[in-house]
Amino acid sequence: MAQVRTETESARSIVLDVPGWPGHVTGQHVDVRLTAEDGYAAQRSYSVASAPELDRLELTVQRVPDGEVSPYLADVAEAGDQLEIRGPVGGYFTWRPEAVEPVLLVAGGSGIVPLMSMIRGRAAANSRVPFRLVYSARTPDDVIYAQELSRRVRDDRGLDVAFAYTRGTPAGWPRPPGRLDAALLAEVGWPADFIPAVYICGPTGFVEAAANLLVAQGHEPQRIKTERFGPTGDREAAA
User: Fold this and answer.
1) Average pLDDT, stretch 118-145?
2) Are residues 138 and 213 in the same domain?
3) What is the DSSP string of 62-123?
4) pTM (two decimals)
5) What is the mean pLDDT of the chain?
6) What is the CA radius of gyration of the chain?
7) Are residues 83 and 115 in the same domain?
8) Quick check: 159 and 131 in contact, CB under 8 A?
9) What's the pLDDT at 234?
10) What is the pLDDT of residue 233?
11) Same domain, 78 and 107
12) What number of other Cβ atoms are within 10 A of residue 236's Cβ?
C-alpha cells in the first residue's frame, strides 16, 4: 500500500503498487481479502477508482457499519501495509475510450467510485467524448472527490457535473434538499434522442429509481448499465 488519502469523514482512497498488474478497464472491480491471525478470512469487492495504469491501482472505500472489511480499510490500514487482491473483475459495467457516444453518469453516494474511474480514464486517453455526471450525496461534506471534480469541470469543457443533495445544501443552493428526481435529470442529463451511454451506480433503491426515471424519459433500457450495492454483502460500500 503506497498511500492513503482521506476523501470524507467516512471514506478514503488507498493507492496500491501492484507489480505485474495486467491493467484494467474503467468500471471494473477487484476482490480484497483480509485474513486474521486466527485464520478467519473475509472478502469484499471494491470498484477501481483509478484510470487504467500498469503497476498502480487506486480504491476508494467508504466505511460500512458492522462491515468486516471496510472499517479496516477506511480507518486502520496505513501506507506500507499489504493487501491480498484478485482481479480485475467484470466486463459489463465498463467504458472504453474508443466509444464515441455521449456518456451520462449517475452516482449515488460511494457509487461515484467506478464512474470516477471512467472520468479519469477519459482524461488519460485525451478523449473528447462529452461526459455528464449527476451525483446524489447527503450533504456537500459527503461528496467524494469534491476538489478533483471541481478542478476537472473548470479545466475540461467536455465534462459537466450536477449535484443533488438529500439532507443539506450549500448556502444559496437553488434546490431544496431532496432525492434525485425527473426534473433534475431532464435539466442536466442528456436528452434521450442523443442516445447516450448511461451508467448508474449506487444503493439498490437509488439505482432502480434513477433507471426508471430515465426509461420514462425515453432512454432505451438496453443502453442503461447499472451497478448496485447493499449495506452489507459482497459489494460492501460499492467501492
Assistant:
1) 97
2) yes
3) E--TT-SSHHIIIII--TT---EEEEEE-SSS-B-TT--S-EEEEEEGGGHHHHHHHHHHHH
4) 0.95
5) 94
6) 17
7) no
8) yes
9) 42
10) 37
11) no
12) 27
